[in-house]
Amino acid sequence: MTILHTTGQHRVSFCPCHCTGKQLWEQLLEVDIWPATEQKPQTGFTIEVLRHQRSFSLRGKVSLKEYYDALVDLTSAAELKGSISTTYDQFRLAVRQYRILCMHMRAGRADAALPLADGELCIKCPACPRPGENLPKNWDKDPMK
Fold this sequence. Notes:
Blueprint: E1 2-5, E2 8-11, H1 24-30, E3 33-35, E4 43-46, H2 47-60, H3 64-74, H4 77-80, H5 84-106
Parallel strand pairs: 1-4
Antiparallel strand pairs: 1-2, 3-4
């Protein structure tokens, strides 16, 4: 299995447990590895590399491609074996999925499978006046408004 971590891309052996009846992707998530796919994942990304990339993107304005290229530089040529482009495409998808999950968590949604209402994942501006939420009662009748 190919794992992308903050130290680069690595080939590791992963032997799934058949005793629990859990799917392979569930077992990977339990050990903080985000699988590239649900069916027979051959590639995974550590939660740490997803958090790391998100932080670099938000704070350092580092593009996903630049971040990935830096990880490739950390990996020895013998470990890559021509899997750079396929891993990048999978990493792009995993990053998008992780960002969506972060938005759901930040919005306090426990069940991401339920449909979203318009604007539900947006953070409301606390300074913008909204009657019934952050304005006093009878604010519209106040002579000092």
